[in-house]
Design brief:
The chain is of the alpha+beta class and about 160 residues long. Helices cover about 30% and strands about 40% of the residues.
Length: about 160
């Protein structure tokens, strides 16, 4: 699997990954009915560096990395990850996170923090924990899940 910087020609593939996740409304704090243009503007924003995971020329996942905060908080990075439904269970998210951790270390970040991991996203919570992240905070009933109603969100953190 190749992980590389996203290019202008990748937007259609990226949209095909992020839009279904956004529309589902169960893992990201984005409006489920946001337009494709707004979704791409969010994911590919100038405040982020965006990557794609590719296998045999097919883009299976995408992630971004950015400073979590400005100024005195710049040494902690934040990432977002999404994979295509066809790639579920194939290790794409794991490989992207491993790549992000390597990249973060090489760029001098001292930690990686996920600000809002929905507690019912059990696959993600398990994966992040297996990669060394800890739940350092719980936000009670902070997310309105479309199926489960109000559920907790976690702040997950890993020192680099």
């Amino acid at each position: 699997m190749l992980i590389r910087n996203a290019e202008a020609g990748d937007t259609k593939a990226i949209a095909s990954i992020i839009l279904p996740t956004i529309r589902e409304g169960s893992t990201y704090t984005l409006e489920p009915d946001m337009s494709e243009a707004d979704a791409l503007a969010y994911w590919l924003g100038s405040n982020k560096e965006t990557f794609v995971a590719e296998d045999n020329g097919v883009i299976l996942g995408t992630y971004y990395i950015r400073p979590n905060q400005a100024g005195g908080g710049r040494h902690v990075c934040n990432c977002g990850f999404m994979t295509s439904s066809s790639a579920t269970g194939r290790g794409v998210a794991r490989r992207m996170c491993e790549n992000a951790l390597e990249l973060a270390r090489s760029r001098g970040y001292r930690a990686m923090q996920f600000n809002f991991v929905v507690s019912t996203n059990e696959r993600a919570v398990r994966l992040w924990k297996s990669l060394g992240f800890e739940v350092v905070g719980r936000l009670p009933l902070a997310f309105c899940h479309p199926v489960f109603g109000y559920v907790d969100a976690f702040v997950m953190y890993q020192a680099l």
